[in-house]
């Protein structure tokens, strides 16, 4: 889709320096700009590229003045980085502005569908499902029985939403995510064999939650696994049964959270973190990447390591750990000197 620079300047409330009638149909980095693309300049260390870029147009800060001839048309704004981000949001809306029901797809007669639904082909909507307005469900999505999905939520291709799950307003579920599969519940018997414990709870996702590709959130054994409002989950995260994640917490990829752990609000959890079950993690906690959490954490704790301990203590200890061979050698030398003195 092509846009005139004059249209883009109007969206961004910017001033044009150059040809306002040129058109662009893609976005690019300034150093990789090509004809027909739009880019931006925010970081001063990339300024040199504005004189060589082949991008048709470039968004710049208002105070920018070229020191030599340029070929790109400029759009001057208050903050070029924020303006480009705004443009990305607009571009995403236009790109994903789909509507209608594609065939083949299946909608149960008992399902209740809101206005302006997009349903991609080969998708399935089960019995008694309730879907709000402006929901987008891309191809090959499974929506199980009794699922509730509120307004303006998007579910991308290949996601699976098991029965009884509740999804709030303005949520995003990326491809391959599985929400509501059985929790890992097995009980040993007298023979040492494991029998499955029925998982009869559900998953509740509150408003404005983003769920990454191939992330899995298990249904509760009893009650609910709960993801509170504003939570952002990266790709390939495992959230086990009866976990609760507090509002506006962000978790990076490949983290695993075992059953019944409660995580507070506004936490930041790095990639490949492992958290054992039945713990309580406070609010505003920071967990560094690859940490192993085996104990409760208080509000505002910052931890690292496996098992994790205080971040500053870990950093100090790591200095000595790197020098461990030298320290051992020094201790051996001292021991030899002591033995010689004793003789």
TrEMBL record:
Q: Which SUPFAM superfamilies match?
A: Trimeric LpxA-like enzymes
Residue span, UDP-3-O-[3-hydroxymyristoyl] glucosamine N-acyltransferase non-repeat region domain: 21-89
Report the record's Gene Ontology biological process terms: lipid A biosynthetic process
UniProt entry keywords in alphabetical sequence: Acyltransferase, Lipid A biosynthesis, Lipid biosynthesis, Lipid metabolism, Repeat, Transferase
Report the EC number(s), separated by commas if there are several.
Answer: 2.3.1.191
Pathway(s) served: Bacterial outer membrane biogenesis; LPS lipid A biosynthesis
Task: Quote the PANTHER family the UniProt record gives.
Answer: UDP-3-O-ACYLGLUCOSAMINE N-ACYLTRANSFERASE (PTHR43378), UDP-3-O-ACYLGLUCOSAMINE N-ACYLTRANSFERASE 1, MITOCHONDRIAL-RELATED (PTHR43378:SF2)
The record describes the protein's role as: Catalyzes the N-acylation of UDP-3-O-acylglucosamine using 3-hydroxyacyl-ACP as the acyl donor. Is involved in the biosynthesis of lipid A, a phosphorylated glycolipid that anchors the lipopolysaccharide to the outer membrane of the cell.
Quaternary context: Homotrimer.
What this protein is called in its record is UDP-3-O-acylglucosamine N-acyltransferase
- The protein's organism comes out as Lutibacter oricola
